Structures are given as C-alpha cells and as structure tokens.
Amino acid sequence: MEEMKENGHTQTPNGENLEEKKENGQSQTTKGGLRTMPPIFANEICEKLAVVGFQTNMLSYLTRELHLPLTKAANTLTNFNGTAALTPLLGAFIADAYAGRFWTITVASLVYQMGMISLILSAVLPKLRPPPCKGSEVCEEATEWQLAILYASLLLTAIGSGGIRPCVVAFGADQFDETDPNEKTRIYNFFNWYYFCMGVAILVAVTVVVYIQENIGWGWGLGIPAIAMAISIVTFVLGFPLYRNFPPCGSPFTRLAQVVVAAFRKRNLSMVSDPRLLYENEELDAPISANGMLLHTTQMKFFDKAAIVTEEDGVRWPSTSSEKPPNLWNLCTVHRVEELKSVIRMGPIWASAILLMTASAQQSTFSQQQARTMNRHLTHSFQIPPGSMSVFAYLSMLITISLYDRILIPVARRFTGLDRGITFLQRIGVGLAVSVIATLAAGFVEGRRKHAAAVHGLLDSRTDTIPISVFWLVPQYALHGIAEAFTSIGHLEFFYDQAPESMRSTATALFWGAISAGSYVSTFLVTIIHHASDWLPDDHFNRGKLDYFYWLITLLQMLNLGCYLVCASFYTLKPVQQRPKVASVELSSKV
C-alpha cells in the first residue's frame, strides 16, 4: 500500500485529498454518505424519465406513427430493450478498468443527451417519418432510411444508458463504508432507495410523459425528459467534490483470463496437500481488495493450480519479504483465483432472472396491445393510454418496496438476525414465484378478453373496442411489480455483495445483462411462434392465441424456478477476511 500525506491530509495515489474528522472517537472521511444521494439519484431519475417515457409508449409510436406491423414493432422494441440492457456490460468494463465510475457516468450522460436530441428530431421533422394514414386502412410504412435514423438515435441512448445504469448503482453504494457496521446497513437500504426513486421516475414517465406523447405530441413528450436529463448532468457534475471516488483497478477480465491460462498451463501438476501452500501476495492484491482478501474455498479445485508455486515462477513462498511480482499468466494469487470462482458461482443465480425478464417484457408489447382493444374510459372524455397501464406495475412495486423496507426487514430481522432481514437468495426466490403467478393470470385474462370479443362479434375487428374493462389487466401488472420489487432488488444486492470488490460495476451490469437476455429470448420465442403457428398474428389480433403464449412462458418459468431453488440451496457465499480498518487510506492503483 502507498499512503501519501500532504498538509495533514491523507492523499490518494492520483493526488486527491481526503479530509478527516473525529467523530465518536473514530477518524472518518468527510466525503460520501447520505448527502451525495440527491445528485446521484437525480441522474438516475432523469435517465429513467427519458428512456421509459419513450420505451413504454414505443409500441404505439412504431405502429401508429411509423406504421410497422405488430410483430415487427414488438421485436423492434424487445431488441432495443435487449441492446440497451447489454451495453451496461461495456460501460461497466470501461469504469472498472480505465475511467472510473464518475467519469463513465458523466460521459455516458452526454452521449445519452445526444441520442435524445436525435430522437426528438426524428419525431417532429416530417421528412423523418411517414405521412399520416389515408383513411383507416391505407398506411405507408416508414422507409428504410427513416428507420435507420430512428435506430441510430436509439443506439445512442442505449450506449448512454450502458454507462449510466451499472455505474450509478455501484457508485451510489460506494458512498457508504462497508467496513463500518452502521454504514454497511445503509448499503442494504440504498438498494431499496435506489429502486424506489427509479420506480417513482418510471411512474411519472408512464403517466405524465405518456399522456403528453398521446395527447400533446411526441416533440414535447420527448423534449421534457431531454431537458430534465440536461439538468441532471449539471447537478451530478457539481457534486464531484462530495463523492468518494475509487480509482480503476485494471481490466477485471484480464485477471480472470490470467487465472484460466495459469491453471491450464499447470493442469498436469498434482494439487498441494495444504491450501496454505498456495501463493498469496497481499501487497500485490491490495489495489483490488481494499476491504478484505478472499479466502480459499474448496470448490472448482482445478483453478487452484493457478496458485501453485513452481521453480519456474521465480518466487519464494512462503516468504516474509517483498519481492518482484510473478508473471501473472503463470502464477496467480489465491485472491485472484477466488475472484474467478465467485464469478462462476454467480452464473446460475444470474441466469434465473432471464425468464422473469422474458415474462416482464410482454407488459410493454402484447399486454399493451391487449389494453388498446379494451374499454379504457375513466370518464366519457378521458381514457387511459395503453402505455400507462404499466403504472399499476410500478405502483405495486413502490408499495412493496416501502412495506419491505419499513415493515418486513425490521420484523424479519428479529427472527433471522440478519441486517437485511432475509437473504438476497430468499428475496429472489419469492420474486420468481410471484412472477409465475403473474404470467399465469395474464393467460386467463386473455382468455376472458377473447371470449368477450367472440360474444360481441369483434374477432375480426381491428379498431372496435371490446366491451370489457381494461382493469382486468391490473392483477397481472400488479403481480409483475411485486415480483420485480423482490427479484430485481435481490439481484442487485446479490451482485454487489458477492462480486469481487474490484468488479462491482461489471457485476451490477450483469443485472442489466439478464434483462438483455430476457428481451432476446422474448424476440426468439415471438419469432418462432409467429412463423410456426397462428398464436401471434400481425392482423386480426383477437383471433390469435396469446393466452397459449402466456401459458408457454408460465411453464418455462416454473422449470426455471425449480432450477433456481436447486442452485440456491448449493450456493456458497464468498468468504472474506476483513482488513483492519485504517482511516482515510486509499490503496495504490497499480495492479
């Protein structure tokens, strides 16, 4: 470790001073803490206002403004969702390896702003969209170049989201010191606060923003979130002096690859009799293990061979003296081997979220199309926009988060003794089970909607409203919101807690990676079923068999839940040996 002092203050290797204060007999930094939450949350709220405000109503925009067929529009939406959820892996890699979280968020926000401006232009300029329909049947589909401009705009917003989404979560949690018992409890609360703020932003997006898009115009509907995003960028940057900033620690993927290569090169060696003979170097690992070293575990013993010391490695072990670091492609430390093991162990838990996201994706596609065919009137003059039906999902999510944070956690804590109330694995499991019920309910409601259409002779109608209340869709939306409150926050807690310390942006990006995979699975299923059956027709939606599609997803989710329960029962939490707490010490950024 390197520690530099300047004018009585601790200084990080990159020259940043961390002032100290005495409180309750302990030395603490004046950076980070609750006061940094407003600018961090503001950035996330505005990003969600912009992306969800468009994404929620995107199916309406593609079908009613650009005149795309239903299945093409649905696949365009899920492909965009998938891409937008995949780019966080790239953004997180850049943050962890090179730029740090603050600068990644800042630059990504500017790219996002460019994408929003481009979207506004594509929505308001007549040459960038097809002409209005002539009558109710003759509609000219958007040209290839018009779609290309739209896709380019969406790509910019996806790239921008990729730098914001994973880094905001990890950056916000970084503001609390996990070696302090009091602040570590606040980390668990932070994930609930983060998701609550995100839910509020989404709630505003699917009500106010969608209403503006449907009734005032897409220019204002996209312009207002763009203005909010610009304000949030300024607010976030102005908060820079308050933040706890950790320097990037080099490419995490390189370290993982080094373990694999070293283990393969030593595959013919016999395993050592005592794990204490495996190579450790606390000085070498200090930059990537500020809060503690990972301890040796007995699973996946093959990778332990990467830490076996041989004469060719040119190091002595055990050794009490500092020496030149080894070639890490030939010899790795136990900590680095355990980093790889931790990532592999997380895989099955990560995969469990894919089908949940596949089911959730239907809310913004086929569930929205269901809503458009149903009676949406609240009064004679006002009817609920189809895209705003997801408000019930977000309301139930917000209520669930509030009850969870204020009631369930304190009650459960008395029985379990855990600061977070229940484990994140239990929280994920509850959400997966609720999601199964939500999709099953969606299938039954669709059956009732089709029955009403048949009774009133509307199976072949494209525009007539079926005399059945849109509020029949509320249970499936509400159950999906409850499932998200449990599973999504549980996954965020899981990834941040169980990921190697130096890979937390990358790990939280896996959450968005599951959303991406779920969206692509949805696209795959829709494409296959559309071509192989009459379940999802482009025309005559009421004659389709959407209920069969929902029940297929329900069956897949039940199988997924069973696999998750097996994997969760065998999951091993990462063992960490905590470092002695040293006030205001920043570790060297060399790897």
Automatic annotation (TrEMBL):
InterPro entries: MFS_trans_sf (IPR036259), POT_fam (IPR000109). The keyword Nucleus does not apply. Its main location: membrane. The chain crosses the membrane at residues 102-125, 145-172, 193-212, 218-243, 384-404, 424-445, 509-529, 549-571. It is a multi-pass membrane protein. It comes from the Eukaryota. Pfam families: PTR2. The keyword Transmembrane applies. Keywords: Membrane, Transmembrane, Transmembrane helix. One of its GO terms (cellular component) is membrane. Gene3D superfamilies: MFS general substrate transporter like domains. It is found in: Membrane. Residues 1-35 are annotated as: Disordered. GO terms for molecular function: transmembrane transporter activity. Belongs to the major facilitator superfamily. Proton-dependent oligopeptide transporter (POT/PTR) (TC 2.A.17) family. This is Protein NRT1/ PTR FAMILY 3.1. It comes from Cinnamomum micranthum f. kanehirae.
